[in-house]
Amino acid sequence: MGDAVNPTLRFLHDGNIVEIDHAAPTRTVLQWLREDRMRCGTKEGCAEGDCGACMVVVASLNEEATTLDYRAINSCIQFLPTLHGKELITVENLSPAAGPLHPVQQALVDCHGSQCGFCTPGFVMTLFAMYKSGAPEARSDIDDALAGNLCRCTGYRPIIDAARRMVTLERPAGRHAQPHGAATSDEERSAIETLRALNDERSLHTESRKGTFAAPTDVDAFARLYAAEPHRRILAGGTDVGLWVTKDYRDIDDVLYIGNVEALRDIAVTDTVIDVGAAVTFTELMRVLLDDYPELTDLFRRWASPPIRNAATLGGNIANGSPIGDSMPALIALGTRVLLRHDHDTREIDLESLYIDYQVNDLQPGEFVKRIRIPRRRPDQLVASYKLSKRFDQDISAVCAAFSAQVEDGRTQHIRIAYGGVAGVPKRALATEAALIDKSFDEATVRAAMAVLDEDFSPLTDMRASADYRATATRNLLYRFFAEATGLGATDVYTYAR
């Protein structure tokens, strides 16, 4: 592979280093916990990252390797080798068997937040990640954090009460009982030192009868390996590939993991672009992108759930190119470009040019998405993106629309419109843009442009929506953008007090 190779998977669990030789490339964390570790507090519900019964927390070193970042993930679709150099925390780790409950657990007891109990361990771990990352500031923060957990019994109110109560309870001894902002304990410092030793910058490369798992840490080594072995399946967050294994029962023999390539995990902000490495997660992206484009906050709150956003990467979402991927319309409307790499060669193209047809893209064998370059906000730029789906949280879009425009002296000087869910690929509405450019940004012009949308798209009918619904929605979302941009109307996905 060109750099030092480590054949043994190593991570921290129960305060001890776990070492696994010949780790299978697609064995999930959930399978390992329940079948190998006999830790059955973590449940299997949906096996596709929707219900949250399988929730665990992964702690990893921050960029300076001085503190730990805690994030809740769905263990049912997370492959075990991705834990290399990290700490796995499960519901059994929060309090000793004979000791006091963790504040999160005690709060759920006090607030009657558990009934049948099947979903409870998953809620505990989601709340634990919140507890370690910072107390919720608003009801919407709690709702967002819990969006990846489903409960059929409680109606959620007692669980929401527990989220508010947990930070007020007395903390028993123990590392995990220390909330966000507390002084670093001796146990926490010990965990940090252990993870520093595990992160020895050697690439993981395991081999088993089920296949191989290669996780280079160097981008050049990654590029060389993929160019030489383009049959390998690139794995990023696993939120899509994981379902191929757990739901489609596909055999993926040779995995090439991009998540350990340090050069692809950064975000560089310049005067002109937000330059995002392909392995940056959506959680990390949101912290930067929404500073420039706060109008996209509601869209990204509804983009999957926090555990999925904690794992899913922007590069993986773009390379997958699903026509119902909610990030692509917004990125295309903003004029995003992607940097592609094959071995030593690179090329840069417009994002919309990457998509040729349904599940067909312009990536050549051995070529991968290296960076995503999102233009910085221009003065007076109008931006919006809207998602229509049957459920508010955790649902696939029937239609997703995105708009970016520049209006000067009442005339449209620049406009880009993109839709997802209405064609085989995320696509710009070029004829509609032409009907608006260099014309008055007024009701008559927009009404005329709404009719032109039928030239850009011929929607299909499926389980999410009919063709007629989608055609009507594309037109109405264009009008909504105009109404909000001109002050005729304004909406907020949250209707209660924040």
What does this structure look like?
This protein is an alpha+beta fold. The chain has helices at residues 29-36, 103-110, 120-133, 139-145, 157-165, 186-198, 219-228, 241-246, 282-292, 297-301, 306-311, 314-320, 327-333, 430-436, 443-456, 467-485, and strands at 5-6, 8-13, 16-21, 55-61, 68-74, 87-89, 203-208, 211-215, 233-235, 254-257, 267-269, 273-277, 337-342, 345-350, 355-357, 360-361, 367-375, 381-388, 399-408, 411-420, 427-428. Among the domains are: 1-201, Beta-grasp domain (Ubiquitin-like (UB roll)); 381-485, 2-Layer Sandwich (Enolase-like, domain 1). The strands form 5 sheets. The chain has a 5-stranded mixed beta sheet, with no helix packed on it. A 5-stranded mixed beta sheet has the order 3-2-6-4-5. Strand 4 (55-61) and strand 5 form a beta hairpin. Helix 2 crosses helix 5.
